[in-house]
Amino acid sequence: MLDIKAVRQDPEAVAQALGKRGFRFDVARFTELDARRKQADVQSQSLLAERKSASKQIGALIGQGMSVDDAKAQVNETLEKIAAQIDQLTADAKSVQAELEELLLSVPNIPDAEVPEGASEDDNVEVSRWGEPRSYAFKVEDHVALGEALGDMDFETAGKITGSRFNVMYGDLARLHRALIQFMLNLHTTEHGYREIYVPYIVNSDSLRGTGQLPKFEEDLFKLEGEHGYYLIPTAEVPVTNVARERIFEDAELGEHGIRFACHTPCFRSEAGSYGRDTRGIIRQHQFEKVELVQLVRPAQSASALESLTGHAEKVLQLLDLPYRKIILCGGDIGFSARKTYDLEVWLPAQDTYREISSCSNFGDYQARRMQARWRNPETGKPELLHTLNGSGLAVGRTLVAIMENYQQADGSIAVPAALQPYMGGTEMLRK
């Protein structure tokens, strides 16, 4: 959520900054609601002062010759009228405040100055490339054909068990999938300073509101039936970041680089807006796995933290020797809560293109304000909002796809990257 004080100070400037996203901020609506809220506050203060003054009038009325009972009755009548007016103003103020909060909850984060202009993913800007796509002396197959030829990828059975956009994996392919998770967790915890965390896969609406999925993106979520209002997590970002909700961290708890969490979870998404896209294979599914990286940092560390977090995700691709490119998302493609995002796109030979495998974002204090996630600044002794960041380190299913396609052999077997062989009991090749 944006800082309402900053919005009040210059709503036109906020509207202009949000224009980089192609988002129209309703300045007139905000100004009207804020004026009504302010008017209710002023009137309430005036009535409180009037009530205080009225309470002192009993003695004056008695001094004018009125009986004690009559004086009390007259003052009480006045106080009751004032109380009724205050109650009505309080109710009006709450209603206006609720409208104001609803409006602000629907407003995305202001993009960083470094975010390029642009309306869609076609306007994203490439920052760098790593590795060279391999050349093949045979016809390249996609991961579906490779997995089915191995007998280890089964979409038909998954369809009977659940439906479309789910899969079943067997044997060495399932083992390779598990090895990727272990490899990523070990790398991030032993080399990059992340603390492993296990979290619930079901969250409440407050958690989703805190990280920005609600109220705008409810259609993308799987909501559970029942009285609790629970949802399946769309990403570990939600439960992990909410560890900091309604909490004040002492400066010493943040350490040198802030708090870093690494978390493996399944993720559940309805993919409401993606019908017809990536229907073949496991590129876009309703259930998939990720190793998520979350950082909670002091505001002064925010910009450098995004660079380091993105570098940690890149290290996974480099150790697996998978060619990729790094891009910065333009204003029209950046996520709702993010102020700056790098995407990492891995090379997929069967598609002859780069595809997203990690999205690393800095949210500034946007999520922290929603969650009231704070740290105590030792210079002032006062609580201040943290900055939050997260990124995939990596999306496990898409990494599996990249390995299958990049490491395929002429006979349909798949070589196991050297970095993963210790997690596979020394297995060097997947064969039928």
Chart the SSEs and their pairings.
Blueprint: H1 4-9, H2 11-18, H3 27-55, H4 57-63, H5 68-105, E1 125-130, H6 143-150, E2 153-154, H7 155-161, E3 168-169, H8 171-190, E4 195-196, E5 202-203, H9 205-211, E6 231-232, H10 237-241, E7 247-249, H11 251-254, E8 259-268, E9 287-297, H12 302-319, E10 324-328, E11 340-348, E12 353-362, H13 366-371, E13 373-376, E14 383-385, E15 387-395, H14 396-406, E16 414-415, E17 429-430
Parallel strand pairs: 4-8, 7-13
Antiparallel strand pairs: 1-10, 2-3, 5-6, 8-9, 9-15, 10-11, 11-12, 12-15, 13-14, 16-17
Helix pairs in contact: 3-5, 4-5, 8-14
Characterise this structure:
The protein has 432 residues and is α+β, with helices and mostly antiparallel strands. The protein folds into 2 domains: 26-105; 121-430, Bira Bifunctional Protein, Domain 2 (BirA Bifunctional Protein, domain 2). 40% of the residues lie in helices and 19% in strands. The chain has helices spanning 4-9, 11-18, 27-55, 57-63, 68-105, 143-150, 155-161, 171-190, 205-211, 237-241, 251-254, 302-319, 366-371, 396-406; strands spanning 125-130, 153-154, 168-169, 195-196, 202-203, 231-232, 247-249, 259-268, 287-297, 324-328, 340-348, 353-362, 373-376, 383-385, 387-395, 414-415, 429-430. The protein has an 8-stranded mixed β-sheet with strand order 1-10-11-12-15-9-8-4. Strands 7-13-14 form a 3-stranded mixed β-sheet. A hairpin with a 4-residue loop joins strand 11 (340-348) and strand 12. The two termini are 52 Å apart. The model has no long low-confidence stretch (mean pLDDT 94).
